[in-house]
Write a structure and sequence with these properties.
single chain, mainly beta, outer membrane lipoprotein receptor (LolB), chain A, twelve-stranded mixed beta sheet, 1 helix
Length: 165
């Protein structure tokens, strides 16, 4: 993923949790392995090494929280330098390579699709131990960040909630 540092990913994000489904389009700015940002019209989430900053544009709230040791997000998998616990299968067709893996310590299985020509990821899917889909990210387009700048949010009148200890 080093070649994607400084890239902007246009994504469609799906998450299933507690019998609820969340679907969201947005962008991910991959600034470094320690900082990446998800942004759409409703929310901006900034992962910055030791904390998460969530800006809810609709509710006018800013929430700071610590990263929880041992917890992993879909974005951690997509933008991590860490290796997978168990690589179970690699297959390919003319367009894509499909990598199936297991994160044994978290009891999670995953599938990563990568474009054979560009090496760019197309989709990352995660499954619970019972094989039910937890979440996936469909990556529609990857662009060089270049002159891309996230629009500033006027947070002057936003409520601030700090959950960090």
């Amino acid at each position: 993923m080093d070649e994607n540092l400084g890239s902007v990913f246009n994504v469609n994000y799906h998450q299933n949790q507690y019998n609820e489904s969340l679907v969201s389009d947005g962008i991910i700015c991959f600034e470094s392995y320690k900082k990446y940002i998800f942004d759409n019209s409703i929310i901006r989430i900034i992962y910055d090494n030791t904390y998460i900053k969530t800006i809810n544009k609709q509710n006018k709230q800013i929430i700071y929280d610590n990263l929880i040791e041992g917890e992993i997000s879909l974005f951690d998998l997509l933008f991590s330098k860490n290796r997978l616990d168990v690589l179970s299968l690699v297959s390919s067709d003319p367009e894509n390579s499909i990598i199936k893996f297991t994160l044994e310590s978290l009891d999670i299985m995953g599938v990563l699709k990568i474009n054979n020509m560009s090496g760019e990821p197309n989709q990352l899917s995660l499954f619970n131990a019972d094989s039910s889909l937890m979440s996936f990210v469909h990556i529609k387009k990857v662009e060089d960040k270049g002159d891309f700048i996230l629009k500033a949010i006027d947070t002057s009148f936003f409520e601030l909630i700090d959950l960090r200890e």
